[in-house]
Design goal:
heterodimer; A: Peroxisomal Thiolase, Chain A, domain 1; Peroxisomal Thiolase, Chain A, domain 1; 2 domains; ten-stranded mixed β-sheet; two-stranded antiparallel sheet; globular; B: mainly alpha; Non-ribosomal Peptide Synthetase Peptidyl Carrier Protein, Chain A
C-alpha cells in the first residue's frame, strides 16, 4: 500500500475566498453566518445562512462559462484552482492519464433547478436554456475540473447528503493508496442557498432561526452554508521526489451505515465509523488529539456524536479536543467535510484548534472539550474528521502530521 | 367536520389507527408517533387549517405549541385559527 499526502488545498466559503482567509477566520472565531440575501427570501421562515459574500462570478468566468457553470461548479473551480496551483502539479502524459477527480455534492446545481422551475412554472415560460441539464447535473463540477486540468483518469461524483465530501475523499484516498492513481483531486461543493434550497430544509423543522450553537445546551438547530473545499491527494514518494510541500498525511478512513433510520443518527453507526478509521490507519485512540466534529447544532446529532466519541475513546475522550466549525461557516451539506478538513490541517500543521463558536451553556450530554468560542494552541499528531449523513451513511477520515 | 374531528383524523392516519382509537388524552407517544411522524402531522394540520405552527424539532418543549396530548394540540390549533381571524 502507498502512503498518501495532501499537497494542495483550496476553498471558498462564508469565512473566506481562500484557505488563508478561511483559516484566519477560524483562528479568530469569526462567524460567517448572517442574513440571507436572494430572491423571495421574505417568504422563508429561516432567514440566516453562511452565504459566500462579495463574490462576483462574472469577471472570473466568461459568458460561455457562465452559461455552463452553476454556482456549485463556480465554487469548485475557484477552490480547485487554489489547490492545484499550490500543489505545483501539471497534468500531462502518463500522470494526466492516471489522475482523476472525485467530488461530493448533495444537491448539485440546486439554483439552476430553482431558477428554471420558476421560469416554467411561475413565469409560465415554455422554453429553457439549452444547457440546463449539463449545468445542473451533480457531476458537472467534477467534469469541469477534469477538463480544466486535463485529468483523464477516474472521475466521478459521490452523493451521500452531508457525508458526500468525506465519502468522495475516502474514495480518492483509496485510489491513491492502492496505486491506481498517483494523484487524485478530491473534495466537494454545495450551493443550496436559494429559495427552493432553503424552503426544502425548512420543512424538516430542524433549522435554527438565530445561530448554529453546536454542543451548547441551548442549541436549536442547524444553519446552512455554501462553498467548496478541494484538495490534491498525492502518493507520498511522488510528492517527495518532486520536493512538494506536504500539508499532512491521510492515514486511513472508514465508512459505515446505520441501517436504521432515514434522519435520526445512530451512536453505533457513528462509533463504528470512528473506530474503523483508527483501525484502518493503525492509530491508537490515545494518539488522537483533535476531532473535527460533524457537530450540526441539532439536538439529536450533537449528543449522539459525543456519546459515540466517548464510547470509542473511553477516558481519552476527556483529553482530546473536538470542535464544530459549522458554528462559523454553517453546514455546507455535501461540501461540508471538505471545508472542515481545513480545520484538521490547521490543527496538524499549525498546532491551532479551531473553536466551536456560539457556545453558551454546557450540556451534560455533550460533556467533552469542545474548544468553546476561542481557538486554542495544541500539538496534534493525529486528527479525525467526522461526517454522518441523513440516510445513516457515515464516513470518517484520519489524518496525521508529517 | 369539527376541528377536533379533523385533527383526530390526521393524527389517526399518521398513527395508522382508526379515529375511534385516538382519544383526547392520548399522547403522541401512546399512539406510536415518532419525531418524524410528528413533523409530518404538523405539516398536515398546517395545510388543513391554513395556519403556521411554531415548532422546532430541536426544542419541542420550548416551542410555543403544546403537544403533550391530543387535547392540547387541538386547543393550540383553535388558538391559531382564532388569531388568524
Amino acid at each position: 500500500m502507498k502512503r498518501v499526502v495532501i499537497t494542495g488545498a483550496g476553498t471558498i466559503n462564508a469565512l473566506g475566498h481562500s484557505v488563508d482567509a478561511t483559516l484566519e477566520s477560524m483562528r479568530e472565531g469569526r462567524c460567517g453566518i448572517g442574513e440571507l440575501a436572494f430572491r423571495d427570501v421574505e417568504r422563508l421562515s429561516i432567514k440566516i445562512g453562511g452565504q459566500v459574500r462579495d463574490f462576483e462570478a462574472e469577471p472570473r468566468f466568461n459568458r460561455q462559462q457562465m452559461a455552463l457553470y452553476d454556482r456549485f461548479t463556480q465554487f469548485t473551480l475557484i477552490a480547485a484552482e487554489e489547490a492545484i496551483r499550490q500543489s505545483g502539479l501539471e497534468f500531462t502524459g502518463e500522470l494526466a492519464a492516471r489522475s482523476g477527480v472525485v467530488l461530493g455534492t448533495a444537491g448539485g446545481g440546486v439554483s439552476t433547478w430553482d431558477d428554471n422551475y420558476r421560469s416554467v412554472y411561475e413565469d409560465g415560460k415554455n422554453r429553457v436554456h439549452p444547457f440546463v441539464v449539463p449545468k445542473l447535473m451533480n457531476n458537472a463540477a467534477a467534469s469541469h475540473v477534469s477538463m480544466e486540468y486535463n485529468l483523464k483518469g477516474p472521475s466521478f461524483t459521490v452523493s451521500t447528503a452531508c457525508a458526500s465530501s468525506n465519502h468522495a475523499m475516502a474514495q480518492a484516498f483509496q485510489m491513491v493508496r492502492s496505486g491506481m492513481s498517483p494523484v487524485m483531486v478530491a473534495g466537494g461543493s454545495e450551493s443550496m442557498l436559494c429559495f427552493g434550497g432553503v424552503k426544502a430544509w425548512e420543512g424538516l423543522r430542524v433549522m435554527s432561526k438565530d445561530a448554529c450553537r453546536p454542543f451548547s445546551a441551548n442549541r436549536n438547530g442547524m444553519v446552512q452554508g455554501e462553498g467548496a473545499g478541494i484538495f490534491v491527494f498525492e502518493e507520498y514518494e511522488h510528492a517527495k521526489a518532486r520536493g512538494a510541500e506536504i500539508l499532512c498525511e491521510i492515514a486511513g478512513y472508514a465508512m459505515s451505515s446505520d441501517a436504521s433510520d432515514i434522519v435520526m443518527p445512530s451512536k453505533q453507526g457513528a462509533a463504528r465509523a470512528i473506530s474503523g478509521a483508527l483501525r484502518d490507519a493503525q492509530i491508537n485512540p490515545q494518539e488522537v488529539g483533535y476531532i473535527n466534529a460533524h457537530g450540526t447544532g441539532t439536538a439529536a446529532n450533537d449528543k449522539t456524536e459525543c456519546s459515540a466519541v466517548a464510547d470509542v475513546f473511553g477516558t481519552h475522550a476527556d483529553k482530546l479536543l473536538i470542535s464544530s466549525t459549522k458554528s462559523m461557516h454553517g453546514h455546507l451539506i455535501g461540501g461540508t467535510g471538505a471545508v472542515e478538513l481545513l480545520a484538521c490541517i490547521m490543527a496538524l500543521k499549525d498546532g491551532i484548534i479551531a473553536p466551536t463558536i456560539g457556545y453558551e451553556e454546557p450540556d451534560p450530554e455533550c460533556a467533552l472539550d469542545v474548544v468553546p468560542n476561542e481557538a486554542r494552541e495544541a500539538k496534534v499528531d493525529v486528527a479525525l474528521s467526522n461526517a454522518f449523513a441523513f440516510g445513516g451513511l457515515n464516513a470518517v477520515l484520519a489524518l496525521r502530521r508529517i | 367536520m369539527s376541528t377536533q374531528d379533523k385533527v383526530i383524523a390526521i393524527i389517526a392516519e399518521q398513527a395508522v389507527l382508526d379515529p375511534s382509537d385516538v382519544t383526547l388524552d392520548s399522547t403522541l407517544e401512546d399512539l406510536g408517533i415518532d419525531s418524524l411522524g410528528l413533523v409530518e402531522s404538523i405539516f398536515a394540520i398546517e395545510e388543513e387549517f391554513d395556519i403556521s405552527i411554531p415548532f422546532n424539532a430541536n426544542e419541542p418543549e420550548q416551542s410555543d405549541f403544546d403537544i403533550s396530548n391530543v387535547a392540547a394540540i387541538i386547543a393550540g390549533i383553535d388558538k391559531l385559527i382564532a388569531a388568524k381571524g
